[in-house]
Design a protein that fits this description.
Blueprint (H helix, E strand, L loop, with lengths): L8 E5 L4 E2 L2 E4 L3 E7 L8 E2 L16 E6 L2 E4 L7 E6 L1
Parallel strand pairs: 1-4, 3-8
Antiparallel strand pairs: 1-2, 4-6, 5-7, 7-8
């Protein structure tokens, strides 16, 4: 099966929020999170399977995943929640 070639999409963590809060991407798109806060944050799959979890990301640390469909949150600050929609 041929994979769709795409550039990575970026989600910035800043002021205790994910930006953008909802991101729509094509199948097999790499998404990269960058922490711009002075506090550590993590990226955790919100689904029952918990398919991915980043380590705590310090300022300027990055984490990436190639996506199908996921919602996620920060396990350090659970009120920080967002979603990736794949079309």
């Amino acid at each position: 099966m041929e994979k769709l070639a795409t550039a990575p999409h970026r989600i910035v963590i800043d002021n205790f929020a994910f930006e953008p809060k909802i991101l729509t991407v094509a199948v097999c798109t790499e998404v990269v999170w960058i922490n711009r806060d002075d506090e550590p944050h993590s990226i955790v799959d919100s689904g029952e399977a918990k398919l991915f979890k980043s380590p705590a990301l310090d300022t300027e640390n990055k984490f990436s995943v190639v996506f199908k469909d996921y919602s996620y949150y920060c396990s350090i600050d659970p009120h920080m929640a967002a979603a990736i929609i794949v079309k």
